[in-house]
Write a structure and sequence with these properties.
The complex is a heterodimer of chains A (186) and B (324). Chain A is mostly helical. Chain A contains 9 helices and no strands. Chain B has a domain of 134 residues: Protein Transport Mog1p, Chain A (3-Layer(aba) Sandwich), CATH 3.40.1000. The chains are: A mainly alpha (186), B alpha+beta (324). Chain B: Keywords: Membrane, Transmembrane, Transmembrane helix.
Chain lengths: 186, 324
């Protein structure tokens, strides 16, 4: 169980040597990268943003790791609560800033990937991702926590502050909504 | 009852699938089986495969090491640390959307930082100037964007970034992060839905949890035109932590934008610039970047003045100094 290993790693952190911190980070990163990334991607649907937010999430996790209390919640619940807040902050910030008019595009230009590459990546999985856009924040969070993070309903309920039963009901309803939308899109 | 049972069963089936356990889908309705299939497809998606895991790893490692260093210093001086959220860097530079702004972060900020200036919650990174002044129009936008004379654009350049039009000649306000075009009128409509606009400068302080301060000096011809507040989930504005202020010159149609926001963890941001200059505004540290943006933090509020390249540097400073 990853959880046990983590607690192990933590209890050894009496003297937080940099190397230990790096080891611990590597461990957490390797264990959760896929889940965190997929969770974020289910929310934002963009590779660059997802990479950026994923790195922010791991940063916060590592900075706050000493405040994690295993008696209060499972590690995954704690981690995905941070993940969800980070994504929500991102949307909030975007909302309060997106009205800035075009300033200039200087220094916004990639030296490696061409815009076409990016579009191409962005358009994979198009249909499902388009269908996701009809969901509200809560529905989308549940989808992301379920299928991206692979959490159980009881864990999702703790991250979102809902009852476990409620999560199951919303998940099922959301799936029906998605299926209908996908059929509508043809 | 039946419905409730289905919902529970669905979660159980999906959880089993996620764990790699195969369950027999016995005599379920076709609808249910299809939903389960969709769920399995979604559970099988692994977007992370196409991401740059190594880059993310290195970035986090570098940042936590830096953070650790900073934290140690802060601990010594007995101050509380502030974690900077980087999100906002996208925003300032807005808006050529997904084709450009993410790459700005990925390439511009991370790879070639010359130096960093931090003011409380704000961090500005100076990066090497990019010698590329234009990019090809992404496929998604090909044939959809035009210059003011109606010629289709093949290339986006710094010169006409401001003036792009739809096929019908409608001015494009910006291209959102999905690469979708948002015209000026759509933008205005969305703004009306999402924002509360107040035109009376005396009423501004009814909506925020901090004191909004207007500049007493503005360049000739410019006047305060309006303030925008962002509505919460319930569509109301109450104790808002942020305000956007517009000062326009009616004759020329040009305007200055300013944002004031409460300086707290969530409000912090990192942005990048080609040229940064440190200076003092009324005795407080400030950063002028790219000669057109001036940011400072005073008394728990972050001030961000955006001259949009249309206001001279000394004018920006004068405006800033008149905010007291």
């Amino acid at each position: 169980m990853p959880k046990l290993a983590l607690i192990d790693a933590q209890s050894k952190r009496e003297i937080p040597e940099l190397l230990d911190m790096e080891k611990e980070f590597t461990y957490i990163f390797e264990t959760y990268y896929k889940k965190v990334f997929n969770f974020v991607y289910y929310r934002v649907n963009q590779y660059y943003t997802a990479e950026d937010l994923t790195s922010q999430i791991f940063e916060k996790v590592m900075i706050k790791i000493n405040t994690y209390d295993e008696t209060k919640s499972p590690f995954e619940v704690w981690l995905f609560a941070i993940a969800r807040n980070t994504v929500n902050d991102y949307f909030r910030n975007l909302q309060s800033r997106k009205f800035l008019p075009i300033d200039s595009i200087k220094n916004l230009i990639s030296k490696k990937k061409t815009p076409e590459d990016i579009v191409e990546i962005a358009e994979t999985n198009d249909e499902l991702l388009k269908a996701l856009s009809i969901l509200d924040e809560r529905e989308r969070s549940i989808v992301a926590l379920k299928f991206g993070a692979g959490l159980k309903n009881v864990e999702i309920s703790k991250v979102l502050g809902l009852t476990e039963n409620n999560v199951g009901v919303i998940l099922f309803r959301t799936m029906k909504k998605l299926k209908k939308e996908l059929e509508r899109m043809g | 009852m039946e419905k409730k049972r289905l919902e529970d069963m669905f979660s159980t089936d999906i959880d089993a699938y996620l764990k790699g356990i195969k369950r027999l889908d016995s005599k379920q309705s076709e609808e249910y089986i299809k939903l389960l299939e969709l769920g399995k497809t979604m559970a099988d998606k692994d977007f992370s495969k196409d991401s740059d895991k190594q880059k993310v790893f290195e970035r986090v490692l570098r940042n936590i090491n830096e953070q650790k260093g900073r934290e140690d210093t802060l601990k010594k001086s007995n101050k509380t640390k502030s974690i900077v959220t980087k999100v906002a860097s996208f925003a300032l530079v807005c808006v050529l959307g997904f084709s450009l702004m993410q790459t700005s972060f990925a390439q511009g900020v991370v790879d070639k930082i010359v130096r960093t200036i931090s003011l409380g919650h704000i961090t500005i990174l100076e990066s090497e100037p990019s010698d590329i002044k234009s990019v090809p129009v992404p496929d998604k936008l090909k044939g959809k964007i035009f210059d003011k004379d109606g010629n289709p654009l093949e290339v986006l350049s710094t010169e006409h970034a401001d003036e792009i039009y739809t096929v019908d000649g409608e001015r494009i306000a910006y291209i959102d992060s999905d690469g979708d075009i948002v015209t000026k009128s759509e933008h205005e409509k969305a703004r009306a839905d999402e924002c509360l606009i107040i035109k009376d400068p005396n009423q501004l302080n009814n909506y925020t949890c901090f004191d909004i301060k207007l500049p007493s000096y503005l360049p000739e011809g410019y006047k305060f035109t309006e303030a925008e507040f962002f509505k919460d989930e319930n569509g109301v504005v109450e104790n808002s932590k942020v305000v956007g202020l517009y000062f326009a010159n009616e004759e020329t149609g040009k305007f200055i934008y300013m944002q004031q926001r409460v300086a707290e963890e969530d409000a912090g941001y990192v942005t990048d610039a080609v040229k940064i200059e440190e200076l003092k505004i009324n005795g407080v540290d400030a950063v002028l970047y790219d000669d057109s943006n001036l940011d400072w933090e005073y008394n728990g509020v972050i001030y961000m003045l955006v001259g949009r390249g249309e206001i001279a540097k000394d004018e920006l400073i004068k405006i800033a100094e008149s905010i007291k």
